[in-house]
Design the sequence.
Protein backbone atom coordinates (compact mmCIF):
# COMPACT_ATOMS: atom_id res chain seq x y z
CA UNK A 1 0.00 0.00 0.00
CA UNK A 2 1.36 3.40 -0.94
CA UNK A 3 2.05 6.11 1.63
CA UNK A 4 -0.66 8.35 0.12
CA UNK A 5 -3.21 5.54 0.33
CA UNK A 6 -2.22 4.84 3.96
CA UNK A 7 -2.70 8.55 4.87
CA UNK A 8 -6.11 8.56 3.19
CA UNK A 9 -7.17 5.39 5.02
CA UNK A 10 -6.07 6.81 8.39
CA UNK A 11 -7.93 10.07 7.64
CA UNK A 12 -11.13 8.12 6.87
CA UNK A 13 -10.84 6.06 10.05
CA UNK A 14 -10.32 9.17 12.18
CA UNK A 15 -13.25 10.91 10.49
CA UNK A 16 -15.61 7.98 10.99
CA UNK A 17 -14.69 7.47 14.62
CA UNK A 18 -14.85 11.11 15.73
CA UNK A 19 -17.44 12.84 13.53
CA UNK A 20 -20.53 11.16 15.02
CA UNK A 21 -19.65 12.45 18.49
CA UNK A 22 -20.67 16.07 17.78
CA UNK A 23 -22.43 17.82 20.63
CA UNK A 24 -23.88 21.27 20.07
CA UNK A 25 -26.36 23.65 21.63
CA UNK A 26 -29.89 22.70 20.63
CA UNK A 27 -30.38 25.88 18.60
CA UNK A 28 -27.65 24.91 16.14
CA UNK A 29 -28.66 22.37 13.47
CA UNK A 30 -26.64 19.20 13.17
CA UNK A 31 -26.00 18.20 9.58
CA UNK A 32 -24.37 15.09 8.25
CA UNK A 33 -24.97 12.65 11.08
CA UNK A 34 -23.76 9.21 10.11
CA UNK A 35 -26.03 7.91 12.88
CA UNK A 36 -29.30 9.25 14.25
CA UNK A 37 -29.65 12.65 15.93
CA UNK A 38 -30.60 13.01 19.59
CA UNK A 39 -32.12 16.01 21.41
CA UNK A 40 -32.09 16.21 25.20
CA UNK A 41 -34.08 18.78 27.19
CA UNK A 42 -33.92 19.26 30.97
CA UNK A 43 -36.61 21.72 32.09
CA UNK A 44 -36.92 23.30 35.53
CA UNK A 45 -40.59 22.82 36.52
CA UNK A 46 -39.93 23.48 40.21
CA UNK A 47 -42.03 25.95 42.26
CA UNK A 48 -41.55 29.70 41.64
CA UNK A 49 -38.19 31.18 42.67
CA UNK A 50 -36.57 27.72 42.78
CA UNK A 51 -33.09 27.55 41.32
CA UNK A 52 -31.82 24.26 40.02
CA UNK A 53 -28.11 23.40 39.82
CA UNK A 54 -27.31 21.09 36.91
CA UNK A 55 -24.26 19.30 35.54
CA UNK A 56 -24.49 17.08 32.45
CA UNK A 57 -21.68 15.25 30.68
CA UNK A 58 -20.68 12.27 28.60
CA UNK A 59 -17.37 10.48 28.29
CA UNK A 60 -16.44 12.94 25.52
CA UNK A 61 -18.29 16.16 26.35
CA UNK A 62 -18.70 18.04 29.63
CA UNK A 63 -21.56 20.55 29.32
CA UNK A 64 -20.54 22.28 32.54
CA UNK A 65 -22.35 23.39 35.69
CA UNK A 66 -25.38 25.63 35.26
CA UNK A 67 -27.92 27.37 37.50
CA UNK A 68 -31.29 26.91 35.84
CA UNK A 69 -34.21 29.23 36.63
CA UNK A 70 -37.86 28.10 36.69
CA UNK A 71 -39.23 27.06 33.27
CA UNK A 72 -35.81 27.29 31.61
CA UNK A 73 -35.10 24.54 29.05
CA UNK A 74 -31.45 23.44 29.19
CA UNK A 75 -31.04 21.61 25.89
CA UNK A 76 -28.43 20.10 23.65
CA UNK A 77 -28.25 17.75 20.68
CA UNK A 78 -25.71 15.39 19.24
CA UNK A 79 -25.16 12.51 16.86
CA UNK A 80 -25.34 9.11 18.48
CA UNK A 81 -22.01 7.27 18.52
CA UNK A 82 -21.26 5.13 15.48
CA UNK A 83 -20.58 2.30 17.97
CA UNK A 84 -23.92 2.79 19.75
CA UNK A 85 -22.38 3.43 23.17
CA UNK A 86 -23.33 7.08 23.77
CA UNK A 87 -24.24 8.01 27.35
CA UNK A 88 -25.06 11.44 28.79
CA UNK A 89 -25.69 11.67 32.52
CA UNK A 90 -26.93 14.57 34.60
CA UNK A 91 -26.63 15.47 38.27
CA UNK A 92 -29.20 17.87 39.71
CA UNK A 93 -29.27 19.76 43.01
CA UNK A 94 -32.25 21.60 44.48
CA UNK A 95 -31.72 22.92 47.98
CA UNK A 96 -30.61 19.92 50.06
CA UNK A 97 -31.97 17.40 47.53
CA UNK A 98 -30.04 15.79 44.69
CA UNK A 99 -30.44 13.17 41.99
CA UNK A 100 -28.24 11.67 39.29
CA UNK A 101 -29.60 9.94 36.18
CA UNK A 102 -28.83 8.92 32.62
CA UNK A 103 -30.35 11.66 30.45
CA UNK A 104 -29.55 9.56 27.37
CA UNK A 105 -28.23 6.04 27.09
CA UNK A 106 -28.27 4.25 23.76
CA UNK A 107 -30.71 1.37 24.16
CA UNK A 108 -31.67 2.55 27.67
CA UNK A 109 -34.97 3.62 29.15
CA UNK A 110 -36.86 5.53 28.10
CA UNK A 111 -36.38 4.65 24.43
CA UNK A 112 -37.46 7.84 22.65
CA UNK A 113 -36.24 7.10 19.13
CA UNK A 114 -38.83 8.40 16.64
CA UNK A 115 -37.41 7.83 13.16
CA UNK A 116 -34.30 8.64 11.14
CA UNK A 117 -35.56 12.14 10.26
CA UNK A 118 -36.45 13.17 13.81
CA UNK A 119 -34.03 10.94 15.70
CA UNK A 120 -34.55 10.78 19.43
CA UNK A 121 -36.20 13.36 21.69
CA UNK A 122 -35.55 13.03 25.43
CA UNK A 123 -37.49 15.50 27.57
CA UNK A 124 -36.87 15.65 31.32
CA UNK A 125 -39.17 17.68 33.58
CA UNK A 126 -37.70 18.48 36.99
CA UNK A 127 -40.50 18.75 39.56
CA UNK A 128 -40.63 19.06 43.34
CA UNK A 129 -41.55 15.37 43.76
CA UNK A 130 -39.06 13.96 41.24
CA UNK A 131 -37.81 13.75 37.66
CA UNK A 132 -40.23 12.93 34.85
CA UNK A 133 -39.64 11.95 31.23
CA UNK A 134 -41.39 12.26 27.91
CA UNK A 135 -40.47 11.45 24.33
CA UNK A 136 -42.24 14.49 22.86
CA UNK A 137 -41.88 18.26 22.69
CA UNK A 138 -44.11 19.63 24.00
CA UNK A 139 -44.57 16.65 26.30
CA UNK A 140 -47.86 14.79 25.75
CA UNK A 141 -47.53 12.65 28.86
CA UNK A 142 -44.94 12.60 31.64
CA UNK A 143 -43.74 9.46 33.40
CA UNK A 144 -42.05 9.68 36.78
CA UNK A 145 -38.60 8.12 36.53
CA UNK A 146 -36.59 9.26 39.59
CA UNK A 147 -37.13 10.53 43.13
CA UNK A 148 -35.04 13.17 44.85
CA UNK A 149 -32.58 11.91 47.46
Sequence:
Amino acid sequence: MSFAMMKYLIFCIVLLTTYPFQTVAADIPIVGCLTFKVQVHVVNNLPPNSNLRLHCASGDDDLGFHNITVNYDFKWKFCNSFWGDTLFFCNLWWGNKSVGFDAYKNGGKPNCFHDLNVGGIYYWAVKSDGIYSSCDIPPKALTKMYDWK
